[in-house]
Amino acid sequence: MLLRLLFVLLIALNIAVGAWLLLGQNDVHRRFVTDPGVPKLRLLSELPPPSSAAARAASVLPPATAAASPAPVQPASSASSALTPASTTALSYACMALGPFATQEDLRIARNALSTQVQRMRARQEQTTQTRGWWVHLPPSQSHAAALAQARALAARNIQDYFVVGSGDDQNTVSLGLFKDPANARKRRDQIQAAGFPVQMSERTETVPEYWLDLIPTDSNHFDWRSTIHDPSIGSHSTGCF
């Protein structure tokens, strides 16, 4: 009977010790309230106060938003302006005029020869005044009889090659020659003047058409029109674009 009672007491004691070991160890019990590897949730009141060194380090660090902000991006206008010089210096163009051409045929030949080197072309005609020569003559007389009297006076001084104009704007004028070279005209004038006559020398002009070719080269930096047009009388100058 005593042995049975001791056996029961031992069993009860074992049960009490096991219950205390299982339920009385709070740390052991809390260790298994979450899945393995997952950190435990702790109240702020349970956290230890931060040290002074850690607080100073936290105050020096910049905000997270500033650290995470991306680097400044160059404006699109600056990027485009940086590319502009390289693109504009690749090709350049300027409007220019070639001429004057003496005939429309000369203009047509030049236009066909330059057609592959230009963007646009146009032909135009202008009126210009050209020198026909230099005229040596006496002043016009009041009448035809007075002009004939001047002619006889020239012949008496052994001066030949004169002509009395009978009609037109220069009627009753004694002509002493029309010269292409102004030096020859001055020599004739001095001869008549030395004979005592009031001789005059004037330039004779006429209005004639001249032809021009306005064009815009594909690339003015490499446009050599003289390698195609070999006429030394043709020149070039800048003109307004069209």
TrEMBL record:
Residues 132-197 form the SPOR domain. GO terms for molecular function: peptidoglycan binding. Gene3D superfamilies: Sporulation related repeat (3.30.70.1070). It comes from the Bacteria. Transmembrane segments: none annotated. This is SPOR domain-containing protein. It comes from Dyella psychrodurans.
